[in-house]
TrEMBL record:
Region (Disordered): 25-44
Record lineage: Bacteria, Bacillati, Bacillota, Bacilli, Bacillales
PANTHER family named in the record: ARABINOSE-BINDING PROTEIN-RELATED (PTHR43649), OSMOPROTECTIVE COMPOUNDS-BINDING PROTEIN GGTB (PTHR43649:SF29)
InterPro entries: Bact_solute-bd_prot1 (IPR050490), SBP (IPR006059)
Record flagged with keyword Signal: yes
Keyword Transport: yes
Protein name in the entry: Extracellular solute-binding protein
Recorded family membership: Belongs to the bacterial solute-binding protein 1 family.
Any Pfam family matching the protein: SBP_bac_1
Keywords from the UniProt entry: Signal, Transport
Domain of life where this protein originates: Bacteria
Cleaved signal peptide residues: 1-21
């Protein structure tokens, strides 16, 4: 075990039991099984003696019911292909899995056979400890290695240690009926967005739906703001020391978020509100706009969740600081599935994993994920092909938003150490609560960053 890694894992467990904070939510190659090579060796598949693998997933709650249905279908196909196999599904809330349960299992060296995981920094950290299955040869065997839009966050030293289940972008969902009624237009600059929020507030509505009990939610807004003020490249440099959190432009970005809080553009008491509360603010018409990941579209297209607001929500990218500047958007493929390295020691489990990968990452499943759950594909797919999957107006808005992206960046928590993420999470909640000034907050985060970088 590399020096310093186990203590770091233990530190992460303690820090994240104190504060649960993460991202997004965040986030299938087109070959039939007969075209993808052998699933595993014949000896492993010939026995029908019962055995079991566990798949830890986070498809919990009504908003993830479509994704759960797709997973269950893949499970059924995989069980039918592998003699004797039973797959046990272990459902855990995403934040609990990421910040507590999986970290504890990894520290003990006993993760589930298959598990929901974020590629960076988690999968890369676990891979350094030899706890993640190297998928490189498996992907070659199945003809999948070059099918993905990106595997960067799951790649370490040229080896692949997990697969993204889908992609996403972040932007604003908005009440189209209200915009039409009031004669409002999609803002083209950040100043126009500011003035739009002011006008909405003057009409007695909340400009931006928000819920900040989990810090990753308001940090979607913050992350997009600093990527405009300081440039999307700045986040890449925090771990290397090339960038500084307390950069003047970063201070301006945090100050803009603080300004919006002080102007009352978010609901009072947001620090006590859960993620679902934020969506309810826009569904009930209490709020008019909401920064969220494109994955949330499934909620607004489902009458059982969105009620009368179903079909009446649109989407647009956060606009740049001034006209003519490039449109900069968080675009990610960082959440997916990882596999325990222990699987390699059991030929039958390895056969099951290969079958699961073969069945999950197909063009059919990716297109269904896009159509039924609104999750952007993780595999390479023509935009026009994506557009054919749905005539839904909201999905078409999201496709348009994708086509407008000129610069993109991964979410902040894919580019910084977990303890830095924790400090940032505490910091933004302190900003929202009026407990700290932006410059002071960023000085503290930089100090944590310096310490984390020294341990690398």
């Amino acid at each position: 075990m590399k020096k310093g890694i186990l203590p770091l894992l233990l530190l992460l467990i303690v820090s994240f039991s104190t504060l649960l904070a993460g991202c997004n939510d965040s986030r299938d190659p087109a070959s039939e099984s007969e075209d993808q090579g052998p699933v595993a060796n014949n000896e492993a598949l010939s026995s029908d003696e019962p055995f079991e693998i566990t798949i830890r997933h986070t498809q919990v709650g009504d908003s993830k019911k479509f994704r759960l249905a797709l997973l269950e279908e893949v499970v059924a196909k995989t069980e039918a292909e592998v003699p004797g196999l039973t797959i046990r599904l272990d459902a855990v809330d995403s934040e609990v899995n990421r910040k507590e349960k999986l970290r504890g299992e990894m520290a003990a060296g006993k993760p589930p056979d298959v598990f929901d995981v974020f590629g960076s920094p988690e999968a890369q950290l676990y891979a350094r400890e030899g706890l993640m299955l190297d998928l490189s040869e498996i992907l070659n065997e199945l003809g999948l290695k070059d099918k993905f839009t990106t595997l960067a966050s799951f790649t370490l030293d040229g080896k692949i240690y997990g697969l993204p289940i889908g992609g996403s972008i972040e932007g604003y969902f908005y009440n189209k009926g209200y915009f039409e009624q009031k004669g409002l237009s999609i803002p083209q600059t950040l100043d126009e967005l500011d003035k739009l929020a002011e006008e909405i507030q003057a009409d007695g509505k909340i400009p931006f739906a928000q819920a900040s009990k989990d810090a990753w939610i308001p940090l979607m807004t913050t992350n997009n703001l600093w990527s405009y003020y300081a440039g999307p490249e700045i986040t890449y440099g925090f771990m290397t020391g090339e960038s500084q959190w307390n950069d003047e432009k970063m201070v301006k970005a945090i100050a803009k978020h603080k300004e919006w809080v002080e102007k009352g553009y978010f609901k009072k008491g947001e620090l006590g509100l859960e993620y679902a509360d934020m969506r309810n603010q826009i569904i009930t018409g209490e709020a008019i706009m909401m920064m969220d990941g494109s994955w949330a579209n499934s909620v607004f297209r489902d009458p059982t969740q969105a009620g009368a607001m179903a079909g009446k929500i649109g989407f647009f990218n956060m606009p740049p600081l001034k006209k003519g500047d490039p449109v900069v958007v968080m675009r990610d493929a960082n959440n997916g599935y990882g596999f325990s390295s222990a699987v390699a020691d059991d030929p039958r489990k390895l056969a099951a994993v290969k079958s699961f990968i073969k069945n999950m990452w197909t063009e059919e499943m990716q297109l269904r994920g896009l159509k039924e759950d609104g999750v952007l594909p993780a595999i390479k797919m023509d935009l026009e092909q994506m557009k054919t999957t749905s005539n839904d107006a909201l999905m078409q808005d999201i496709f348009t938003a994708v086509s407008e992206i000129e610069l993109s960046f991964p979410a902040y928590d894919a580019l910084v150490q977990a303890e830095v993420n924790t400090a940032l999470s505490i910091g933004i909640q302190q900003i929202i609560g009026g407990e700290i000034e932006p410059a002071k907050m960023l000085e503290h985060i930089q100090a944590v960053q310096n310490t984390a970088n020294a341990l690398e």
